[in-house]
Amino acid sequence: MGDVRPEHKFALTVYLWGTICGVVSGALSIQTRAAWIIGALMFLITDVFVKMVLKDNLPEDLQGLEGGQFRAAVLRKAFWGWFLFWLYFTMLVYTVGIDFKPVPYNNQSLLSQMMNKT
Known about the structure:
Elements: H1 6-29, H2 35-41, H3 46-54, H4 67-97, H5 110-116
Helix pairs in contact: 1-2, 1-3, 1-4, 3-4
């Protein structure tokens, strides 16, 4: 198996950070709804996480950028990958955390039949 390209490492790092933010967001949302905002604000430090994990193994388009340019380029490049993982894990952890149970509103529905084993 060959080396993983820097672009793929960057994507995996962004997905990992989105997952971490989603778990934090979902877990804190069980107590207060404002916690979704905390998780979303964690997106703003994506560049710090990427630089910490990847160090000098950045994609070509991010090499040589410093300060605000680096931050803007990372946030622009990472948004959709981060957002999808954050949203998925926020909703998953929140749903599991509140012990969600579906409620059928119609006794004839498939959900009702499956829940009542009829």
